[in-house]
Specification:
The structure holds two protein chains of two kinds. Chain A is mainly beta. Helix content of chain A is 0%, strand content 53%. In chain B, strands 2, 4, 5, 6, 9, 10 and 11 form a seven-stranded mixed sheet that branches. Classes of the chains: A mainly beta, B mainly beta.
């Protein structure tokens, strides 16, 4: 069935270092890949997303790369700050008229940025 | 503010009881998704409705049911509650099933005592 694997489950970095989180998906029909940041008890907040017709997307300190052949995508955060500490989830979905749009989530990565 | 409204914010009840969680999607959104977030299971897709009809089903228990009403709000009904049903339940909405991203509500925290 559909599955998204996310690694690592926990990640601790020093402030200013980079952080990388990786995800692998199983459904080759997936064509939309969002990343969410979730603080304790709050709703997931979309921080960046990428569609299958694009290999890389950047937004300031955050970037996402997608390798459709290998079915994996990664989140890169540069110059990390303490406020980046949170749980990060990747997800995969279809988009467009032939898909339901449901999101299949990875297991989450707890990122701790030490001052 | 995502524009998606979920009520109540918190719900505390006992095993064996039944509860109803409510979601009002963003204005103009026809598609509603329900997700469950428990400590050991992460975020899991439960069910999706589009314009009043069920569109997709995930690992939703038979004790759970949902519907979407003509005004497009949706309700998730959980019955014969068990301790393991304690979780955060999120609703998300989008214009239609092919539209991304989805917009998440603030969730309902359900605690079973």
């Amino acid at each position: 069935g559909e599955n998204v694997e996310q690694h690592p489950s926990t990640l601790s970095v020093q402030e200013g270092d980079s952080a990388v989180i990786k995800c692998t998906y199983s459904d080759s029909a997936s064509n939309y890949f969002p990343w969410y940041k979730q603080e304790l008890g709050k709703r997931p907040q979309l921080i960046i997303d990428i569609r299958s017709n694009v290999g890389e997307k950047k937004d300031q300190r955050i970037a996402v790369t997608l390798n459709k052949t290998a079915k994996h995508f990664s989140l890169h955060i540069t110059e990390t700050q303490p406020e980046d500490s949170a749980v990060y989830f990747c997800a995969a979905s279809g988009s467009g008229s032939s898909n339901t749009g449901k999101l299949i989530f990875g297991q989450g990565t707890t990122l701790q940025v030490k001052p | 503010d995502s524009g998606v409204t979920q009520t109540p914010k918190h719900l505390i009840t006992a095993t064996g009881q039944r509860v109803t969680l409510r979601c009002s999607p963003r204005s103009g959104d026809l598609s509603v998704y329900w997700y469950q977030q428990s400590l050991d299971q992460g975020l899991q897709f439960l069910i999706q409705y589009y314009n009043g009809e069920e569109r997709a089903k995930g690992n939703i228990l038979e004790r759970f049911s949902a519907q979407q009403f003509p005004d497009l709000h949706s309700e998730l009904n959980l019955s014969s509650l068990e301790l393991g049903d304690s979780a955060l339940y999120f609703c998300a909405s989008s214009v239609d099933p092919g539209d991304q991203p989805q917009h998440f509500g603030d969730g309902t925290r359900l605690s079973i005592l």
